[in-house]
Amino acid sequence: MARKLFLAPAVAALLLLWATPAFANAANPNPGTTATSTKNPDRTTTVNISGTWSWPSQTGCSNRFGAGWAVAWSDPNQPGNIVSKNGITIYVGTPTDNTVHFNAADPCGALDSNNHPHGNFSDTHTYAAGVDPGPVCVNMYDLHDTQAKKPGDYVAGGNGHNPDNSVETNAYDPTVGGAFCVQPTAASTDLPLGAFGGVGLAVALGGGLVYTTRRKPKAA
Description:
2 domains, 14 strands, four-stranded antiparallel sheet, mainly beta
C-alpha cells in the first residue's frame, strides 16, 4: 500500500502536466495600422506598413525577449511562407526573407500601467513593376529568447517556424478593420516647383504623373 500511495501523486502530477495546455500567446496589432504605397521611378511600388502592438496576456518581460512580426505581402512574384491553423492560412515574408522582424533596440517595448508590454512595428516591401499591391496583413510572434539561443523563434513561416504567433495561438482576425490587415493607400508627395521660376503642374497620364512647368509672365 505504501508503494501505491507513493506512486499515485506522481502519476497524478504527470497527468496534470500532460493535460495542462501550453501558455502560448503573442502580441496583437492595435487598430490604426497603416500602409502606404509609393510609385518609384522604375515603376516598382514600395509599401510601408506601420502601427502599434499590445500584449495584454503578458505581464512584464522577465521571461520573454520580446514581440516580433512578419507581414503577408500577397506578392505574386515573391510568394510568402505558410502559417496555417483553424481554417486561417496566410503566407508571410518572401522567399528570401522568412525572418521574424523585431525592434532590436527595444524588443519588448514599454510596460503600461498594468505591466503589460506594448510597442511599435514597421516593415517595408517592394513590388515589381506592374504589380498593384492588395491588402497586407501583419502576424505577431512571441519571441521567448534571443536569436542565438532560440533561432527557431525567428523563422516566420514554413518548416520549423515559430508556432507561437497570432494565427496559431492568438486572436488573428483579418476582418478586424485597421488592425491585422489593411489596404495600402498612395503616399502623398509634394509637387516639385518647375525650373526657371515656373510653377510645377502634375498631369495624370496612363496612371502616372508627368510634371510640366508654366512660366511666370514677365513684368511689364
